[in-house]
Amino acid sequence: MTTKRVNKRGIFLVALVFCVSVGAEMRTWTLSSGKQHKAEFVHVMGDQVILKNPEGVTKKVKIDELSAEDRQFIELSSPPRLDLNFTRKTEQKVFSNRFTLYLKPDVNFNTFGVRVRQTSAGSYNHELQVEFFAIGKERTGNRYQLLDRQSSSFVPNKENRRSHQFIGKTVELDDYVIGTIRGGMAYAGHLILVSDSRGELISTNASSKWLLEHVENLKKLSVGNYMDKTCTRTFPTRPKSPHY
Predict the structure, then answer these.
(1) Which of 15, 87, 128, 200 is deepest in the core (most CB within 10 A)?
(2) Closest Cα partner for 188 from 214, 227, 235?
(3) Cα 227 to Cα 233: distance, rounded to the nearest angstrom
C-alpha cells in the first residue's frame, strides 16, 4: 500500500494505490465464465488483479470475476499492514536488609505482552498467528536468557476492531549482590512474529536485528535457557569469586 499526498491551495488530495508485489509464481487462473489462463500474479490495483502470461503480456482482471480459490490466493498474497506493539508491565519489590552477606536490593516482576492492530483498509478473512519472545541479559555478564515465549491467533474483523492483544506469565528479574559481586538479570529486548495460515511470515517487530537474523535458533530454545547473540544455547557467565 503506497500513499501519495499533495498539498495544493490548502487542499489535501490523498490517492491510495493498492499495489502489493509478490514472488513470481506461474499458476492457472479460472474466471467465472469457466475460461482459464496461465499467468503470474503481479499485483492488485483497486478491484482488479494484474496478471502476466508466459509471454510477458499483462492483463487486468476484476477480482470478483475470479474463482473462490483464486481470490483466496490473492488475499493470502496481499496480507494486511499491521501495527505491532510489545508491552511490559513492571512491579518492584525492595529488600532493605543490608546486614547479611547476601543482599537482594530489589526484584522486578515483569509481565510481557503484545498488541496487534490492522492499519490497512479492507477485510482479511484468514487467521493470523502471533508469537512473542521476551529476552533478558545478565547484569554483569554477556549472556542472554529467553524470559518468556507466548503465542496466540486471531482473525482481524469488525467484532474485534481488527486488533488483538495477549500477555504472558509473570517473570521475576532480580538484582543482587554477594559480597562485592553484583548479579541478576535485566530485561533486554523482544521479538514479535506474525504468520499467516500458510505459516508464511508477514510482519515482525524486533528490538535488535540479531534476534530476527537468528530466529530459527531462537525457536529451538525453551523458556529459561541462556544463549549468545546467535541465539545458540549456552551456559550463564561464570560468576567471579568474591574477595573480602
Answers:
(1) 128
(2) 227
(3) 4
Q: Tell me the domain boundaries of the chain.
A: 2-77, 82-234
pLDDT class for 179, splitting at 50, 70, 90?
low
Q: Which helix (H) or strand (E) holds 177?
A: strand 163-178
C-alpha cell of 142? 554477556
Phi, psi of 229 (to 5 degrees): -80, 0
Rounded-to-integer distance, Cα 28 and Cα 49, Å: 14
Q: Tell me the backbone φ, ψ of residue 210, rounded to 5 degrees.
A: -65, -25
10: cell is 490548502
List of residues 6+ apart from 57 with CB closer than 8 A: none
> Can you tell me the distance from the alpha carbon of 41 to that of 66, in angstroms, rounded to the nearest whole number?
13
DSSP H/E element including 215: helix 215-218
How does DSSP assign 31-46, residue by residue? BTTS-EEEEEEEEEET
> How confident is the model over 66-114, as pLDDT tens digits?
999 998 888 898 899 999 999 999 998 766 554 444 555 678 899 999 9
Q: Whole-angstrom Cα distance, residue 46 to residue 16?
A: 9
Three-state secondary-structure class, residue 121: coil
Distances from the Cα of 154 to the Cαs of 79, 106, 163, in angstroms?
Answer: 14, 38, 8
Q: Give the CA angle between residues 112, 126, 213 to the nearest 5°.
A: 50
Distance CA 158, CA 132 (A): 24
- When pLDDT is averaged across residues 7-33 and rounded to a whole number, the result is 53
Nearby residues of 18 by Cβ (< 8 Å), 6 or more positions away: 1, 44, 45, 46, 78, 122
What is the CATH topology of the domain spanning 2-77? SH3 type barrels. (2.30.30)
